[in-house]
Amino acid sequence: xxxxxxxxSFDPITRGHTSILASGMKAFDRIVVAVLNNPRKTAMFTVxxxxxxxxxxxxxxxxxxxxxxxxxxxxLVDYCRxxxxxxxxxxxxxxxxxxxxxxxxxxxxxxxxDVETVFIMADDAYFYVSSNLIKEAAKLGGNVEELVPGSVxxxxxxxxx
Length: 161
Ligand code: PNS
What we know:
- By secondary structure, the chain is α/β, with parallel strands linked by helices.
- It has a single domain, classed as Rossmann fold (3-Layer(aba) Sandwich).
- It is built from 6 helices and 5 strands; from the N terminus they run E-H-E-H-E-H-E-H-E-H-H.
- The protein has a 5-stranded parallel β-sheet with strand order 3-2-1-4-5, with helices on both faces.
- Helix 4 (96-111) links the parallel strand 4 and strand 5 (116-121).
- The chain binds 4'-phosphopantetheine.
């Protein structure tokens, strides 16, 4: 059983994230989407809301039974051990992601050499989509409905009403 942990803030999950999940489903038997309340970022949605939106998106994709959604605190590699996951899954978009991702992958390898970081490229249609830009555009009245799963579009509307 190949298990990957797909960690992130997911505030909120976007179609960039779901494209990575869909590709990840071809490579892994089970993916645990692990939501962290990142103190370095100001969140729009609570961790519980983010978890619900990811569960709804996974069900919408038809992968509800092979995708678990959870929250985690502390070190990611410790969480991977707890989940018996061999792999950390991360998505890559434009070049700007690379340096941050390289640093994290190297740090995680240092902390636990048994866990491998695997990168999947986001679908090119969503290469420039990020949770931060989605929130900024939505707050300013922009239409982002095609860039997020249906459940997220509805919640963004509610939050900003
Ligand atoms: O979506 P994000 O905010 O870019 O995800 C960042 C995340 C959650 C993957 C990263 O902050 C993380 O793994 N935090 C857990 C703390 C940890 O293990 N730090 C040491 C390795 S860099």
